[in-house]
Amino acid sequence: MRIITWNCNGAFRKKFEHLAAFDADIIIVQECENPLESKDKHYIDWAINHLWHGDTKNKGIGIFAREGIKLQRLDWPSEHMGHTVKHFLPCSVNDEFNILAVWLHQNKSPTFGYIGQFWKYLQVNKVNMMNTIVIGDFNSNVRWDQWDRWWNHSDVVRELAEIGIVSLYHKLLNEEQGKETRPTFYLHRNLEKPYHIDYCFAPASFHARLTEFTLGNYQQWISISDHMPMSLKFEVAESFHIF
Hints:
Number of helices: 6
Largest sheet: 6 strands, mixed
CATH architecture: 4-Layer Sandwich
CATH topology: Deoxyribonuclease I, Chain A
InterPro entries: Endo/exonu/phosph_ase_sf (IPR036691), Endo/exonuclease/phosphatase (IPR005135)
Helix content: 10-25%
Number of domains: 1
Distance between the termini: 12 Å
GO molecular function: endonuclease activity
Number of strands: 16
Order of helices and strands: EEHEEEEEEEHEHEHEEEHEHE
Protein name: Endonuclease
CATH class: Alpha Beta
Structural class: alpha+beta
Pfam families: Exo_endo_phos (PF03372)
Strand content: 25-35%
Radius of gyration: 17 Å
Strand order of the largest sheet: 3-4-2-1-16-15
Organism: Pedobacter ginsengisoli
CATH superfamily: Endonuclease/exonuclease/phosphatase
């Protein structure tokens, strides 16, 4: 089973074919159009099995799966102390495990922007995440922690670890948060401004079955998006029901 996450930087209807070579089972895309409101027939046909969530029809987060894979949207709460956070798209896959697709926003919050949005979401959904892959564009890194906040990137990583969910990248490459050697994003598409802000967190059962982890190459992808696609391949039984 191959899972990909990618912030396509908009106009996904013109870009989805670039992912064909991955032959992925599940693709999580940030900043993509809603297929149900698109006029592009090719995109509509390609997105025959999907879930989508967003503020406008032109930019949201989508989960796209090959035919035969069951995606079921989950009704997880997205409000914490009167504040509705965005963007989160939780779903069940084949009734076996969950995916929480993430695209973090400032969301007009003066204090709880980006990783603060996830911290709030985590507080009301920890009980739901025990068998969940948390994956997407977090727009965050431990380098941007602030000393006077308890919802920093480091705090989120720690709270996820407390329920057994850790970053596949950091576990596999034995790198520390904030000291990543492989960027996932280039600010203004500038090779001299690399950052690691896209992640896949997962329980131990997924780590044990991870057989391949790759990040897109700058030269190949920068003309298409400022983010690099992250591809993860897991060993699965033929029935697909393993977790």
